[in-house]
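Two quick folds needed for the group meeting slides. Do the first one here.
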Amino acid sequence: MNLVIQSPSAISDTHLRPLAALARSKQPQRVDDTRVRLIDADPLQRPDIDAYCGAHTLDYAYLDPDAKLSDFGLVAMDMDSTLITIECIDEIADFCGLKAEVAAITEASMRGEIKDFNESLTRRVALLEGLDASALERVYEERLQLSPGAERMLEGVRAAGLKTLLVSGGFTFFTERLKARLGLDYTRANTLEIVDGKLTGRVVGEIVNANVKARTLIETCARIGVEPKCAIAMGDGSNDLKMMAEAGLSVAFRAKPVVRESASLAFNFVGLDGLLRLF
């Protein structure tokens, strides 16, 4: 395997020798200031590489030497804390003075401590009952920010011929705006019920949980005529794990430990455009 080391800042030459030794690679190659490739690296050395990279704010990934981005047909992304930096439901709750309470439930759910995502989402949405729907627009306009490298990543995957899917346990109010803004191909999310300009505290239709995320990835792959192994899935929380397991390559982005442990690779420090720089 090739071992690709990345950093958001310049990688010092002092890292090359210890990384090569830990990886059992005799061919370290500096690609550019922020990227190093180690040829014929031993994947069994992953625990040592993980410890070294974690201590030095480096990201790493083991890849087939022949892998190309154009080998894939779809990139499927979670929204909250992946494509964007916030958890939208936490920010909505801030407008009714309940951010801390809702954020605690969100965090526990994303760490996998609350096993029933449907119950977790239902509890959180119920706390929003009576809130003026204008709060959604304020969250989008005032608080929603794209994660570092998001637009560059999307430009790069489109240039390589991949389709894009935003699949979220969050809300269509945000996914549809991001679809239009970023030129995404497909989206799937939950619909908040709004009556007379107020949130009712309920979600309309099927809740997009871990099973629905995985099913959406499979269905989208079938729609565009590729196998799930030709999909890349990116996420940060436990409700992304089933979707990520279906994909041929899974990326944990600034993710919870349970997700980092299960993913093909993790970006803890670099931006989403680190995906382009792997190949």
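Then this one, please, same format:
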Amino acid sequence: MANSATAVADSRGGFTSRTGFILAAAGSAIGLGNIWGFPTQAAENGGGAFLLIYLLMVFVLAYPMLVAELTIGRLSQQNPISALRNLASGTLGKRFASLGGVLGVCALSLILSFYAIVAGWLVAYMLAPVFQLLGLEGLASWFTEFSVSRNLLMMLVIMLLTIFVVRDGVSAGIERWSKRLMPTLLALLVLLAIYILGQPGAMDGLRMYLLPDFSQLSPQMLVSAMGQAFFSLSLGVTGMMVYGSYLSKQENLPATAAVVAGLDTFVAFLAGLLIIPAMFVAQQNGVTIYAEDGSLLSSDTLVFTVLPAMFDTMGAAGPFIAIGFFALLTIAAITSTISMLESPVNMACEQFNQPRRKMSWLTGAVITLISALIILNFKALFGLVITATTVYAQPLLAMLYSLLLMWVLKRDRLLKELQQGNPQLEQTLFWKIWPAYVKFICPLMILLVFIN
């Protein structure tokens, strides 16, 4: 029993500072959805109009749900399965809640399995211009050509980097690297945006991005913006729940969640300042961006087709801009893969009473094998796994977690938990609105996203 207790104690820790938590949680949320997905959605859905609707959806949907998931984690300060089980009462209720935790961890592991493949492509496109500058054209071409060998190698690189961070624990691994990677990401994003905005054609993209065209408003745009806000903050797959379990009881949860959501949204906004003007710079340089009917070409592969074509037209500066751009995307991806691996590792450590290092390697190896299986059966599995996890599992699980928190947990227990970081919470407008809002409105909105 002593060894088991030591193993669990070794696996659990906490963030040593509020800044460390904010950077780690923001890193979890800030990923390809912000830097790739959001600008693409904006370019397809009216630019400035989509931006305004997206900001509204972050406020009315994503932020309330983020507070809910962080609260579930901090309430018990245990892994997602135990945290959700503690919300319920009765044998049947506890089993159902535990199943929700298991499904969330499994969904997150599957998301990591395809996310690592895409992140591997980013590393490959970052290395290609390096070898091009060295005169190794054949090797540079290998990195940009789709092949099983390249996909396997680059995915393995991402998984190894992720395991090395997670195995060192919360403060020595996740927090330390988040403090390094997040400022680097922000610096690269700002520098690249400034450079792109100085190129011919960029102002056309800037006008499209910042000046709303409300003639393009539609129910589908509302749903797209809602979905983007929801997925941007990694809700519904226990990642934020785990980070919440490492958070000090003295932290003001609503205020801390607001900072995380605000930083995540700010990075998405900056990414729009980079990607959308870059598209119009590419168009100025002869790269076709839009079809004759006005639809965006190559939206799913924008960063692997349109933008590299733009870099090729930028002369001597092109390879260096390409390296910086794909380094930016790689950092964003790794800050997300770290949080994706942390949840199943945390669950394995506490459920099986095993040390963190052992579970990091074992869990990482299992997810690596799943990724390899997807690569070897790419056409059949890649799209299927993405659809099953992000389109179906995430909205349904997020809805389940909000229902467990608000319909099962007693209101006075919830208030007592939140008051630990804010004794005056009961008198605030947040407490007067948030419980009923998450209890009734958020599930209905998530259901709308799911149906569409």
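Slide caption for protein two: Confidence is low (pLDDT under 50) at residues 1-11.
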